[in-house]
Amino acid sequence: MLRLPGSHTAPNRRRLLGAAGLLALGLPSAWALPQGAGGGAAPLATPASPALAPSGSTRSETSRTLTRIRDTGVIVMGYRAASLPFSYLDGRLKPVGYSVELCERVIDAIREQLQLPDLEVKQIAVNSATRMPLVANGTLDLECGITTHTAERARSQSFSTTTYVAESRLLSRRSQMMRTVEDLRGLTVASTIGTTSLQYMHQLNVQKGLGFRILVGQDDQESFRLLQTGRAVAYAMDDVLLRSLIAQVRDPQEYYIAEQALSVEPYAIGLPAHDPQFKRLVDGVITSLYRSGEINAIYQRWFQSPIPPRNLNLQLPMGEAFKRVIAKPTDSSDPAAYR
């Protein structure tokens, strides 16, 4: 654990998407693909602009990621060990979850496009501190966890179409409820290393002169324990992750999630930088799930049904912001695009 001074400083996952997502050689021009990060329409892939050009081609639009996957027969996926329901290990220590399932659909697409039925999937565990460096240095092809797409992060890596929209909030005990960030004045709050919630809490502390201390956990479980053991009066993190954490304790009714949203957090799959053709393929798979409505069954499976290994059911309806993303896909990093 680190200490920051406050103001003192499954089901049918293997179903192939067929014509809908998997011609990174050229997605049909009739598709409505995501908006670009600047809010405009992202360029469409067409048969004339392949993501993986034929062997010997001199096209400049060759995807280096797909080329390497084809040449090595391996794709590398990053996962989180304990971030229910997005990315975590089940009872057999197999990575599962909402984000993992979306990545599996992408991998199926790549397997079909490259005609590599025996494509090897190498899985690497990541955490809040290691996930982005491993994408930036080329270790990971897909980061399938709970990463917020921000403009700052997009300088070192790329992001897919938005796959979920969360909001950062405060979790506290009902015996000492923290309803707003101003309630933290002079107290101690916890957050997790390498997260946007931690950055935002530090900014608010300085801007508002609240003088609270920030204790930094190495992962979400450690940060939550700081609240459980009384070392912090609140834990700042994305609301969906807070819900999943308190759903796993014996006394969830003892905890309170503040109604005040501190920030908007658009989640996305982390991708290698400077490979728009690979991003186009990934976006096409996700968008096809949105257009077909299949995303609703995937969402229900992980957010509104019992999930392994303990059959927890978060009973979390889909939020209005994510419904808007499904209706009009975007890869924007601007929080205002989701309000």
Short description:
By secondary structure, the protein is of the alpha/beta class.
Uncertain segments of ≥5 residues (pLDDT<50)? Answer: 5-50, 54-60
Largest beta-sheet details = 11 strands, mixed
Number of helices: 9
Q: So what's the overall shape? A: globular
| Beta strand count | 14
The CATH superfamily name of the largest domain is Periplasmic binding protein-like II
Overall mean confidence score, pLDDT: 87
Number of domains: 2
CATH class of the largest domain: Alpha Beta
Q: Structural class of the helices, strands and pairings?
A: alpha/beta
Helix content: 25-40%
Strand content: 15-25%
Say what the CATH topology of the largest domain is.
D-Maltodextrin-Binding Protein, domain 2
Kindly report how far apart the N and C termini lie: 34 Å
Q: What is the alpha-carbon Rg in Å? A: 20 Å
Q: Secondary-structure element order, as H and E?
A: EHEEEEHEHEEEEHEHEHEEHHH
Structure description:
By secondary structure, the protein is α/β, with parallel strands linked by helices. The protein has two domains: 2-8 and 166-264, D-Maltodextrin-Binding Protein, domain 2 (3-Layer(aba) Sandwich); 18-165 and 267-318, Periplasmic binding protein-like II (D-Maltodextrin-Binding Protein, domain 2, 3-Layer(aba) Sandwich), CATH 3.40.190. 28% of the residues lie in helices and 21% in strands. The chain has helices at residues 64-72, 98-113, 131-136, 196-208, 220-228, 239-246, 276-292, 294-303, 320-327; strands at 2-4, 74-80, 82-83, 87-89, 95-96, 120-126, 142-148, 158-159, 164-173, 188-192, 213-217, 234-238, 255-257, 263-271. The strands form two sheets. Strands 1, 2, 6, 7, 8, 9, 10, 11, 12, 13 and 14 form an eleven-stranded mixed sheet that branches. A three-stranded antiparallel sheet has the order 3-4-5. β4 and β5 (95-96) form a beta hairpin. α2 (98-113) packs across α7 (276-292). The longest helix has 17 residues, at 276-292. The radius of gyration is 20 Å and the shape is globular. The chain starts with a strand and ends in a 12-residue tail after the last helix. Mean pLDDT is 87; it is low at 5-50 and 54-60.
